[in-house]
Amino acid sequence: MFEEKVRAVLGARALLDDNDPRIERKWEELIELLSENENSTLNFLQVCTKTELSFLSEVFEEVAYNLQSKKYIELLYSLDKRYPDLDLKSHIQTAESYME
To answer: Which among 9, 37, 45 has a CA at the least distance from the CA of 24?
Structure first.
């Protein structure tokens, strides 16, 4: 159920142009979903696709702030190693700074 909800929001986000003001609403929905339950979020991140992860990187910081989870940050770093071409490190470092 959780995965389906997140994927539905990600799908709607993917259809929007990067300059579309409605994108902020999708970000809010993702932040809310991913901040509800740390375990569900971690499990989803472990199975999400490269494209999904790329869109999720837009909200790494806010989710980190809400979860205050070292496991979340550690998983993001491992995903950065799995997909080095996504260049997630700066997003992750910013997200990590939101926890301090």
So the answer is: 9
